[in-house]
Amino acid sequence: MAPYFGQCLCGSVRYRVSKEPLTLYACHCTECQRRTGSAFALSLIVRRDDLQLVSGQTTGYSASLADGRTKSGQMCPSCGTRLWGTPAKYPGIVIVQPGTLEQPCHLVPIAHQWLSEAQPWFVPPPGVPAYPRGPADPGEFVRLWQQRKNES
Ligand SMILES: [Zn+2]
Ligand SMILES: [Zn+2]
């Protein structure tokens, strides 16, 4: 249960998520693989007002993509850990990197998207919705998250 605490690799930046997140999903698109240097990204959607810096300072990063979009967010200036993204289209939310949380293991992704670009060895867990691309309506993952919460 909230609050959740997180930090960067070197520990100079610490933050808190004060309320329950809106959803958590995994994205297997090529951009997320490059951004994370890994096989897929986990995205924990949190209201911007529910994220507080506890100690240290973050610094902004930003990447201009070939198609004109810009991906930006905050990272630790010392160790370079990316902590959260700040989507220009949705200023009311931040996308926390849940791997930086202290105990992220109880947060299970509600869905997997962009399976069309996933590493060939990846098999989505049984019973978890998987999409070849993204869902048509970005609110779908929020609804699925709420639904699972109500069922448990
Ligand atoms: Zn750091
Ligand atoms: Zn992605």
Could you explain how this protein is built, in words?
With 152 residues, the chain is of the alpha+beta class. It is 12% helix and 31% strand. It is built from two helices and ten strands; from the N terminus they run βββαβββββββα. The chain has helices at 30-36, 140-151; strands at residues 4-7, 14-17, 23-27, 41-47, 51-55, 59-64, 70-75, 82-85, 93-96, 112-113. The strands form two sheets. The chain has a seven-stranded mixed beta sheet with strand order 6-7-8-9-4-3-10. Strands 1-2-5 form a three-stranded antiparallel beta sheet, with no helix packed on it. The protein is globular. The model has no long low-confidence stretch (mean pLDDT 95). One zinc ion binds at residues 8-10, 12-13, 76, 78-79, 81.
Short structural description:
This protein is 12% helix and 31% strand. It is of the alpha+beta class. The site of one zinc ion (ZN) has 9 residues, from loops.
**Strand arrangement, major sheet:** 6-7-8-9-4-3-10
Which architecture name does CATH use? Answer: Alpha-Beta Complex
Bound molecules: zinc ion
Q: Which residues form runs of ≥5 with pLDDT under 50?
A: none
Biggest sheet details: 7 strands, mixed
CATH class: Alpha Beta
CATH superfamily: glutathione-dependent formaldehyde- activating enzyme (gfa)
Q: H/E series, N to C?
A: EEEHEEEEEEEH
Q: N-to-C terminal Cα separation, in Å?
A: 14 Å
User: Please, how many helices?
Assistant: 2
What's the total number of strands?
Answer: 10
CATH topology: glutathione-dependent formaldehyde- activating enzyme (gfa)
Average pLDDT, rounded to a whole number, is 95
Provide the domain count: 1
> Structural class per helix/strand content?
alpha+beta
Rg value: 15 Å
Overall 3D shape: globular
Considering DSSP H and I runs of 4 or more, what fraction of the residues is helical? 10-25%
Beta content comes to 25-35%
